[in-house]
Write a structure and sequence with these properties.
- The protein has about 500 residues and is mainly α.
- It has two domains: about 400 residues, Na+/H+ antiporter like fold; about 80 residues, Uridine Diphospho-n-acetylenolpyruvylglucosamine Reductase, domain 3, CATH 3.30.465.10.
- It is built from 22 helices and six strands.
- The longest helix is centred in the middle third of the chain and has 33 residues.
- It is found in: Cell membrane.
- It is a multi-pass membrane protein.
- Its main location: membrane.
- This is Potassium/proton antiporter.
Length: about 500
């Protein structure tokens, strides 16, 4: 009697083949402007029970586990690549978007779900919470693959927001699950949370997440420095050390009642900046871990979907998706960023690139596992929202960035630089009275100040390359910076 290895070889054959097909299809699809992540999701769906593959897969617990681990790895990788300098322009708007923005998105999208899906208010707001946050995996990968260089303010805001808004979405989802179970009279459900319960839980989530993430980040950075060259292995050993530490912090923080997502992202940011030289060698391997996490997560989530069930709620779900993309996200971004003096083009672009990815689908597994009645509908809605976001928003990032003028020219492209900054280049130390006399422009109130000082006061926000304002009939723009100091300015007349 021989031992059969079918239990090993058949699942391995299926899994490896799906990843191979997805990557190959992704390489070809990116040439047409489609996202790798979209391909993984579609391949998983086609391999599922209603597709040509016919695979029966309904293990929500495994998908939930894989999804959370994968998101932790992706957030850690994104944090390691986030430079402290980006917080100069991106921290304040990102915090607003990750908190107030998510709440506003949840409310407006929940109202759309209440009307379109004929749900009770607790269930409708649960739908809004599930799809209320942008996705780190989608934002990090699609901004990188879009081929456009965004101005620092826009890029920093999008990246930091996507790394910080998951805790609020998780918190709102768990809160509305509790409310929904109470309303449905599920046995064992606790009473609905009071306002004090909500506040204390929020403080616990963010407090533990921030404290443990920052503390572990400093500790890991110091450890990497002390290990020095003794841990070299082409960066692979360092990456394995960092990933295992990140997952430990994620699990420990979640176990203590904090936000594991916030903790692992904060840990990545601190470690990546405090031990920059040691981390740099591991980034290539970390990129591989992040891509493997994305592939596995999107394939599993695609396998969970049954298109025949999806069709029953397709049109209402599309309505919820459009309400999110065209109403909820733009309004929440405007409310958060307009007081910070973001211009209309930046607000429009950040609104459009509110990408939804794996996070809403992972969050949609929460009510399924909690036993909320009608939870499969939430999963179907989340899938439609993600699919439309990756298809419509993800494939138009480069086009919309150029159309709205938030992309910067390549350093060697002189012709494009002239189109963006104008034909004339001046030293930022030029006095305003000399500048206005030479070009025949109106004098500002304080003509003795230099061009950099005047430009900074006119912008009313931390300047970045690409910022511009008007001086009479001339457009004056920031062309070069050294740290926080404007060094060269471009002028377009007429």
């Amino acid at each position: 009697m021989s031992l059969s290895l079918d239990f090993l070889t058949l699942p391995l054959l299926v899994a490896a083949s799906l990843v191979f097909i997805s990557v190959l299809a992704g390489v070809l699809s990116t040439r047409m402007g489609f996202s790798f992540l979209l391909v993984f999701l579609v391949v998983g769906t086609l391999a599922g029970v209603d597709g040509p593959g016919g695979l029966v897969f309904d293990d929500f617990r495994l998908s939930f586990w894989v999804g959370n681990v994968a998101l932790a790895v992706i957030l850690l990788d994104g944090g390691l690549r986030t430079d402290f300098s980006t917080f100069r322009t991106g921290l304040k708007p990102s915090i607003l978007l990750a908190t107030i923005g998510v709440v506003v998105c949840t409310g407006i999208t929940g109202a759309a779900a209440y009307w379109l899906l004929d749900l009770s208010w607790p269930l409708a707001l649960l739908v809004g919470a599930i799809v209320g946050s942008t996705d780190a995996a989608a934002v990090f990968s699609l901004l990188k693959s879009s081929g456009v260089k965004l101005n620092e303010r826009v890029a920093a805001t999008l990246e930091i927001e996507s790394g910080m808004n998951d805790p609020m979405a998780v918190y709102l989802t768990l809160t509305f699950i509790t409310v929904a179970l109470t309303a449905q009279g599920v046995a064992g459900a606790v009473a609905g949370p009071t306002a004090l319960d909500v506040l204390l839980s929020l403080l616990q989530q963010f407090g533990w997440g921030a404290a443990l993430g920052m503390g572990s980040g400093f500790a890991l950075a110091e450890l990497l420095k002390r290990l020095g060259r003794g841990v070299d292995g082409g960066g692979g050993i360092r990456a394995l050390l960092v990933v295992s530490a990140g997952l430990t912090v994620f699990a420990g923080t979640t176990w203590l009642g904090g936000s594991g997502f916030l903790a692992v992202y904060a840990m990545g940011v601190i470690t990546g900046n405090m031990a920059r030289r040691q981390v740099r060698a591991a980034l290539s391997a970390m990129d591989g871990y992040a891509w493997l996490s994305q592939a596995g997560m999107f394939l599993l989530l695609g396998l969970l979907v049954t298109p025949t069930g999806l069709l029953r709620t397709l049109w209402p779900a599309l309505g919820v998706s459009l309400a999110l993309m065209l109403v909820a996200r733009p309004l929440s971004v405007w409310l958060c960023l307009a007081p910070l003096h973001f211009n209309a083009r930046e607000i429009t672009f950040i609104s459009w690139v509110g990408l939804r990815g794996a996070v809403p689908i992972v969050l949609a597994v929460f009510p399924v596992m909690a036993g909320v009645q009608g939870a499969q509908t939430f999963f179907n809605v989340a899938f439609v929202v993600v699919l439309t976001s990756l298809l419509l928003q993800g494939s138009t990032i480069a086009w919309s960035a150029r159309r709205l003028g938030v992309s910067l020219p390549d350093p060697g492209d002189a012709a494009q630089a002239r189109l963006v900054y104008g034909d004339f280049v001046l030293d930022a130390g030029t006095s305003m009275d000399n500048l206005c006399a030479f070009y025949g422009l109106p004098l500002p109130a304080d003509a003795s100040q230099d061009l950099a000082t005047w430009l900074r006061s006119e912008l009313q926000r931390p300047p970045v390359v690409g910022d511009s304002t008007l001086l009479g009939q001339a457009e004056v723009s920031v062309r070069e910076m050294a740290g926080e100091r404007i060094t060269r300015v471009g002028i377009r007349l007429g």
